[in-house]
UniProtKB/TrEMBL annotation:
It is found in: Cell membrane; Cytoplasm; Nucleus. This is SKAP1 protein. PANTHER family: SRC KINASE-ASSOCIATED PHOSPHOPROTEIN 1 (PTHR15129:SF1), SRC-ASSOCIATED ADAPTOR PROTEIN (PTHR15129). Its main location: membrane. One of its GO terms (cellular component) is nucleus. Residues 124-181 are annotated as: Disordered. Residues 13-116 form the PH domain. Residues 125-139, 160-170 have a biased composition (Acidic residues). It comes from the Eukaryota. Keywords: Cell membrane, Cytoplasm, Membrane, Nucleus, Phosphoprotein. It comes from Pheucticus melanocephalus (Black-headed grosbeak). SMART domains: PH.
Length: 181
């Protein structure tokens, strides 16, 4: 079975995805229009696509300062209990209709959980720098542990053989002799 390629670059960070109806920003002659969109919530962004096979999002925004709430006032039909809003002061608000009231509740809960998680970060720092530092630490730990394992294995493999390489481990560079200063 061939896996369907996901349209999101950071697909490893997808927290929730599925079809929602999104209210268009510009109302048409007949009033507000709702369009079916494939929506994806990642650890940092909310993205929406024409469908789940689309490679480019029709829109996206950082979720960080938004609030999510159920809002039955958005529709007047039988699906009013399936509606929720994403609001952020000074930014565009987004209105969605889920397939069911339970699904709308789940989207709101997932977004609120993520927002609590994002707001609990106490030390703001650049994510890429933090990842690079963690990778460097892991690499140095790996080198340290493999070096000590290699050294202990070398000395215990053949205990009766004299250690010939012991003094030639480090190469002395010209001008770096300890007594030359």
């Amino acid at each position: 079975l061939e896996e369907i390629p996901r349209p999101v670059q950071d697909s490893g960070n997808i927290l929730k995805q599925g079809y929602l109806e999104k209210r268009s920003r510009e109302p048409s002659f007949f009033g507000s229009e709702w369009h079916k969109r494939w929506c994806v919530l990642t650890q940092r962004n909310f993205l929406y696509y024409a469908n789940e096979k689309s490679k480019q999002p029709k829109g996206s925004f950082p979720i960080e300062r938004y609030q999510a709430r159920l809002d039955p006032q958005l529709r007047k039909d039988s699906r009013k209990k399936c509606c929720f809003q994403l609001l952020c002061p000074g930014k565009r608000s987004y209105e969605f209709t889920a397939p069911s009231p339970a699904e709308a509740q789940d989207w709101v809960e997932q977004i609120r959980f993520l927002l609590r998680d994002l707001s609990s970060l106490t030390i703001p720092c650049d994510e890429e720098e933090e990842e690079e530092e963690e990778e460097e630490e892991e690499l140095s730990k790996d080198r340290d542990s493999s070096d000590s394992m290699n050294n202990s294995q070398n000395s215990t493999l053949n205990p009766e053989e004299p250690e010939l390489e012991g003094e030639d481990i480090y190469e002395v560079m010209p001008g770096e002799l300890p007594n030359s200063q």
